[in-house]
Amino acid sequence: MKFWGIEPKVGLVSGSYALLAFYLNARSGRGLSFPLFGLSLLVLGVVLWFVCYLQVSRAYSRGELLTKGCYSRVRHPIYSIWGFLIIPGFSLVVGGFMLLLPAIYWLSVLAFIGEEEKVLERRFGDEWRRYADRTPRFVPRP
User: Fold this and answer.
1) Could you write out the three-class secondary structure of 109-140?
2) What's the longest Cα–Cα distance across the chain?
3) Are 47 and 41 in contact (CB under 8 A)?
4) pTM of the entire structure?
5) N or C: which end of the chain has fewer CB within 10 A?
6) pLDDT (tens digit, 9 = 90+) per residue, 88-137?
């Protein structure tokens, strides 16, 4: 598995639905939207994504399992940021049928995440297993 993990598969599923949603919105009218709230989520999400991306890309280039920073709270913070901030923010800005996009995103992430975790377990062995045991997948513990 490459640096991008399951993102290409998730992007294909989510992107396909997004295209359908744009089409349906154009045919039926825009529908319900919340652009200011959505934009706020988008901006926050992009900033957090960038921080996590910098952290994981450095660790990846060194061949290390990242367990600090963003990755100390959840195993997959980038998927969480996309699923809780960026995609919902985008969906709220666009509105209409796009409001279902976060659900499509999460279903695809859940369908493919096992593949990525198996690769990480093969690559990092016991270090990954200990990390996975103490760190939740997507939502930090209180």
Assistant:
1) HHHHHHHHHHHHHHHHCHHHHHHHHHCCCCCC
2) 53
3) no
4) 0.92
5) C
6) 999 999 999 999 999 999 999 999 999 999 999 999 999 999 999 999 99
